[in-house]
């Protein structure tokens, strides 16, 4: 659906900032709502959705257990 949203969890991204999470939430809401900039009448709902999704995304990232990458086999 949102192909340009990057993966925000390790090992794909180690330094995820609140701005990264907000940008992903904004892209998601834009896609679902079908609009890049909402009309004034929809602005509050749009912004609330972005903030809610950003918070849930942060909770998801905080709750994920990520396994350490497997060590590469050594050649002898």
Question: Could you list some keywords that capture this structure?
Answer:
mainly alpha; 76 residues; 2 helices
Describe this structure as you would to a colleague:
The chain contains two helices and no strands. It has helices spanning 18-33, 43-63. It has one domain (1-76). With 76 residues, the chain is an all-alpha fold. It is 49% helix and 0% strand.
Summarize this structure briefly:
The chain is mainly α. It has helices spanning 18-33, 43-63.
Secondary-structure element string: HH
The biggest sheet, with number of strands, parallel, antiparallel or mixed sense and barrel status, is: none
- Amount of beta strand: under 5%
What number of domains? 1
Number of strands: 0
Oligomeric state as shown = single chain
Radius of gyration: 17 Å
Q: Shape, please?
A: elongated
Summarize model confidence as the mean pLDDT.
Answer: 87
**Content-based structural category:** mainly alpha
Percentage of residues in helical conformation: 40-55%
Measure the end-to-end span: 45 Å
Identify low-pLDDT runs.
Answer: none
- Summed up, the helix count is 2
Task: Please describe the topology of this protein.
Elements: H1 18-33, H2 43-63
Helix pairs in contact: 1-2
């Amino acid at each position: 659906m949102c192909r340009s949203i990057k993966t925000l969890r390790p090992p794909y991204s180690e330094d995820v900032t609140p701005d990264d999470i907000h940008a992903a939430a904004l892209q998601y809401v834009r896609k679902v709502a079908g609009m890049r900039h909402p009309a004034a009448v929809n602005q509050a709902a749009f912004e609330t959705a972005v903030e809610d999704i950003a918070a849930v995304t942060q909770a998801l990232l905080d709750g994920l257990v990520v396994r350490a990458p497997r060590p590469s086999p050594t050649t002898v």
